[in-house]
Structures are given as structure tokens and as C-alpha cells.
Amino acid sequence: MIKKARIISVVILIFGFLLAAFIYFSEKENTSVSQFGFKLGLDLSGGTQLVYDADTSNVASGEEAESMDALREVIERRVNLFGVSEPKIQTERGGLSGDEDRLIVELPGVTNIDEAVAQIGKTPLLDFRLQKPQDEVELNTESLTEGGQIEVEVDDLFTPTGLTGSLVERAQVQFDQVTGQAVVIIDFNDEGRQLFSDLTSENVGEVLAIFLDGEPISLPVIETAITDGTAVISGNFEPEEARELARDLNYGALPIPIELISTNVVGPTLGAAVIDAGVTAGIIGLVLIIAFLIIWYRALGIVASVTLLFYIVIILTLFKLIPVTLTASGIAAFILSVGMAVDANIIIFERIKEELQSRKKNALKAIEDGFDRAWASIRDANITSLIAAVVLFYFGSSIVKGFALVFGLGILVSMVSAIGVSKTFLIALATEKDNTSRRALFESGFNFVKKGLKKHT
User: Fold this and answer.
1) Which pairing describes strands 88-94 and 39-40: parallel, antiparallel, or unpaired?
2) Domain 2-39+270-456: what homologous superfamily?
3) What is the pLDDT of residues 156-188, one digit of tens each?
4) Nearest to 78 by CA among 100, 58, 50, 57
5) Domain 126-253 class?
6) What is the CATH number of domain 47-122?
7) How far apart are CA 58 and CA 249, in angstroms?
8) Cβ–Cβ under 8 Å, residues 34 and 265
9) Nearest CA to 84 among 407, 414, 335?
10) pTM of the model
11) Which helix (H) or strand (E) holds 209?
């Protein structure tokens, strides 16, 4: 058992050195792994700010704020699909008349304006409009100009129905069995399904035009009521165009149209000097923790220090590979998880000390029993913290999600390092036979000093 633990310990140490080398070289330019550098948030590295003008003129009075909130959620979902890039997205109302709505998007680490705009992407504004009954103009695809615009005012011909892409549940591409052309099949959510059913039931024989970004792409006539909530968009699409439309609709269609009005690069709010100071403080704190662990817990403290360094290397590697965008809140979560990792080791060491003090067990048996006794406390404390992290990630904003993700990762890795790695290292240092000096290495505090003074007196 001890021999096996020593072999595994060597493997763990080699693995840890390799990961540390990966972390170091990935921060160097022009290396094979330089693409895995740390991603820093707006408060640490700056980024790009995009300001959009939102058109709420067709939104019912009193529902502007709700529409802007829906817009913010859609954009955040597009640029933060995994909840970890921590964009800062907010809405505001301003302008000279006080009735202009703005969407402000800040993307961390993106200093290329074109790249930032590409991350937002062209999210299509899909909506369905009924032809006004009083209009005698016969509409068909031939009445469209080459630019896709109707030769008369759209608002004079069509009435908005309230059925928009925000009510889309799923979009997919299919091919018409007769013509072979690509079409987009849209399934609406419950609200959209009922609205689509009412529209088709009450307007049989009428034109229900399908508009994409303000341009009509299909002018179908309602031949019968459609109650299953499925619409077919046939706009003479090329297969690739149909796939792009379905993809964008699945990402989330905008509830209201937006127009990019300004862009600028945002500098870091904390600055490089503050980052350097934070790194220095972290190193000093780590050195003091390691010094305390070694002085107070001796051999156990050495093991705890090595385990702590291994834990830090694992976490930093995960930050690079996921990747996690680091902000001040994320760094705070990381420091908190380091404290929890140290706390778990201390609980284990105190249990081992209690087992050794019984004088009925050798070091190997004391290590095994100490871990068994400590496991219940460590498990319950970490599960409670993990539940809190999951709740924060599920209900929180993007910044809170970043904190929760870092904290949750830290908890999971600390449990592995405290229980698995620490136990392996301690067993590797133990022997079947005890002697006084070896036993003293696995105790803690200054008991050996007190015993020596007592014996001397």
C-alpha cells in the first residue's frame, strides 16, 4: 500500500510540474500554447463598448421596459452562451426628448471593433404582419424591388400582429418535397402557439406576411387555421441562408430592432498597477500560509503545502482551458476557495493528531482513520457551499455567474486535492513501524517542547 502510494505521489508531482509549465509558457507570446492565456474581464484588461439604438416605437405603451429587458437577455445569451465570459450589458433611456432607448454592450478583452460586432452578430428581427383589409393592392413577390423593399409604405399595407421571433421555441431547416427548396420550420412557444392559432383562425384568406429585419421575405395566404403552432418560412432561400436563419432564430430573435450607433474601446478600470499589487499580495499571503502550515504541522504541513500548490495549478489550468474570464469578483471567489482547501487539510490533520495521541495506532493507521473521521465534516461543508454556488450560477447575472463558477470549481477541486492527493502523499511518507522521531513529524503544535520541559524538570 505504501509503495503504491509513493509511485502515485511521484506521478502526481510530475503531472503538477507539467501543468505549471503549461501555465507559465501559455502566458508567453509566440509559444505553441500562447492561445491559452488568461482571459481578463473589463475591470482588469478593458474591452470594447458598443452602443445600440433600440426602436420601441411599435411597442405597446407601458411595455417598453419589459421589451428592453427581453432585448438585454437575448443579447447576453448570444455573447455569453456559457455564462462565463462576463459581458456587461445594460439598458438606459435618454436622448434630448428622454424617450430614446439604448442598449450598451461591453465585451471584456475584445479590443477589435469588428470582432466585437461579430460577437453580437446579426440577430434577425422576425415578425408576422397582416395585410390591411382596406388595401386593394395585390401583393406578390413580383411587387418587390430588387432591394427587397415594397414600392409603397409598409405601414400603409400591413398591421403588426405581435407575433415575433421572441416567441420562437425552435427553428429548423427542411426541404420542400415538391420544389426541393430549403424552408425554415418554426415552432412557437405556448404564447406564440396560441397567438398564431388565433391569427390563422380569424383571418382565413388573408395575407400573413413574414418580415425579416423589416423586409418581407414571404407573403403567404392563410388557407386554413393552423393550431399546432408551426409556421413554414419559404423565402427562396439558399440552403446556407436557411441554416443561418434557423441558427440565429434558435440563438434568440430580437424582440425589437436595434441599430449600432457608436463604438469605442474601454480601458481597464483597475489598471496594470493594481493587478501587479494583487499578484504580489497573493504570493505573500501564500508564503505566510505555507510557513504556518510547516511550522505548526511539520510533515503534515509540508504535505498540505504541496497539495495546496497542486490545487492552485489545477484551478489555474481549468481557468485557461474552459476558459473563465477573470474579474475582481472571480479572483475573490478563487481566494475564498483556496481558504476552503486549507481548511479541509486542517480538519484532516487535527483528526490524525487525535488518532496519534491515543498511542494505540501507528502513523499509517492514524492517517487512514483520521481521513475517515474528517470526511463527513468536509463533505457536508463542501456540499452546502456547492449548492450555494449552483443557485448563484442559475439565478445570478453574468458577473455573479462568473463568481459562482470559479467558486464551484474551487470547491470540487479542493475536495479532490484534500481527500485524494493529501491522503496519497501522507501514506507515502508513513511506515508500518513507528519510532519517536517519525511519530513527532505527524503531530502538531509545540507538544514536543512541552514534553521535553516536563521530562527535564
Assistant:
1) unpaired
2) Multidrug efflux transporter AcrB transmembrane domain (1.20.1640.10)
3) 788 888 888 778 888 889 998 888 889 889 899
4) 50
5) alpha beta
6) 3.30.70.3220
7) 21
8) no
9) 407
10) 0.61
11) strand 208-212
